[in-house]
Amino acid sequence: MKSNTLELRIRSTFKVEYSIFIILFALLFSTGTDIRAQQKEDLPSPRGAFLRSLAVPGWGHYYADNDNWNRGKYHLAGEVVLVLSYFGLNARANYLEQDYYTFAQAKASTNLSGKSRDYIIAVGNYDNLSAYNDAQLRTRNWDQVIPDTPANQWSWESTAQRFQYQDARERVERNRSQLPTLVALMVANRMVSGISAFIHARDLAENVPEASFTYVDTFGQPAITANLRFNF
């Protein structure tokens, strides 16, 4: 949005013989300008606000204006929820995975540790290794055949137990499939927070009164023309 601008122009014209007063006034005015320039330098940096919010959403808003950072609080709260959800889902997936590993060991006499994902899926789809290999040979998927060794053997006590194992494995897959989405949301939250903090800090800098002066008027006569500009 284009800011409205209010300009206050103060013009004081002196004759040449009063040039000493012009010099004194100029020195006084320039000192005030230096103070305002210093105040502007002390304002938060838009770049600094952006980078802080990239690191921790909401930090940039607090840095820009710690008395009014409600928008930053929302981004910070969202980040906390996303982080807790990520670690919560990951912990649950690890727990369920360990649970069905133990179940397969007890009910199908197979150790899933170190086995490939294809093997783990096969254990849930077939009652035993022989049934799985027979299905692959019938469909001519020779490259999918699992070597018939003691380490690769499994045999479910019942089909119901195999379905229970399969359900647990699929729940782990569903939980872990949500993790990339949560990461993407965390990245998006940081970007939106950073851009918002950048704009807020930039607006604060733009709203500082600007001052300038000249030693001659528009007609080239000795004079002091002071301009004060307020953005709102």
Structure description:
This protein is mostly helical and about 230 residues long. Among the domains are: about 1-35 and about 210-230; about 85-180, no CATH class. Helices cover about 60% and strands about 10% of the residues. The protein has eight helices and three strands, in the order E-H-H-H-H-H-H-H-H-E-E. It has helices at about 20-40, 45-55, 60-65, 70-105, 115-125, 130-140, 160-175, 180-205, and strands spanning about 5-15, 210-215, 220-230. The chain has a three-stranded antiparallel sheet, covered by helices on one side. Strand 2 (about 210-215) and strand 3 (about 220-230) form a beta hairpin. Helix 2 (about 45-55) runs antiparallel to helix 8 (about 180-205), helix 4 packs antiparallel against helix 8 and helix 5 (about 115-125) crosses helix 7. The model is unreliable at about 1-40 (pLDDT under 50).
Features:
232 residues; mainly alpha; 62% helix
| Biggest sheet, spatial arrangement of strands | 1-3-2
Helix content: 55-70%
Continuous helix count: 8
Please give the radius of gyration in angstroms. 36 Å
> Helix/strand/pairing class, anyone?
mainly alpha
Strand content of the residues, in percent? Answer: 5-15%
Major sheet = 3 strands, antiparallel
The overall pLDDT average reads: 80
Distance from first to last alpha carbon: 11 Å
Q: What is the total tally of β strands?
A: 3
Q: Uncertain spans, ≥5 residues at pLDDT below 50?
A: 1-38
Shape: rod-shaped
Give the SSE order as H and E letters: EHHHHHHHHEE
Assembly type of the shown chains? single chain
